Amino acid sequence: MDAFSEPTFRKVLTKCVEEGPKHIILDLSKIDFVDSSGLGALVQLVKKAQSFEGTLQIVTNPRVTQTVKLVRLEQFLSLQTSVETAIENVKPSS
Q1: What is the pTM of this model?
Q2: Res. 91 pLDDT band, cuts 50 70 90
Q3: pLDDT value at position 94?
Q4: CA of 26: how far to CAs of 3, 17, 59, in Å?
Q5: Which of 11, 24, 53, 75 is the most buried (most CB within 10 A)?
Q6: How far is CA 64 from its chain centroid?
């Protein structure tokens, strides 16, 4: 996910956050690269989900996790090691 793909990614996911379920699991485990624009999009999407009283769980792989850890966003972005773990961590709806 880079500056080229980020606008489309952000547009599609913003619509999903606004119109979709409160709690979203985003599987990025097959992504091999995330640059600063991709990280910025993820931060904005997490904030957007929170503003809708939802969550965005992000499933990653070691390479993406390493990039996120470099900028100390692993806690804020709620990184998960698998879809199953992310499902377990989704808060039940009130």
Answers
A1: 0.87
A2: low
A3: 46
A4: 19, 11, 6
A5: 24
A6: 11
Q: Could you give the residue ranges of the DSSP H alpha helices within 1-94? A: 6-19, 36-51, 62-70, 83-89
Both tokens of residue 76?
């804020």
> How many C-beta neighbours within 10 Å does residue 64 have?
24
Cα–Cα dist 90/87, whole Å: 5
Residue that the structure tokens 């792989």 belong to: 61
| DSSP letter (8 states) at residue 22 | S
For 41-67, the pLDDT digits (tens) are 999 999 999 999 999 999 999 999 999
d(CA 32, CA 28): 9
pLDDT at residue 93 above 80?
A: no
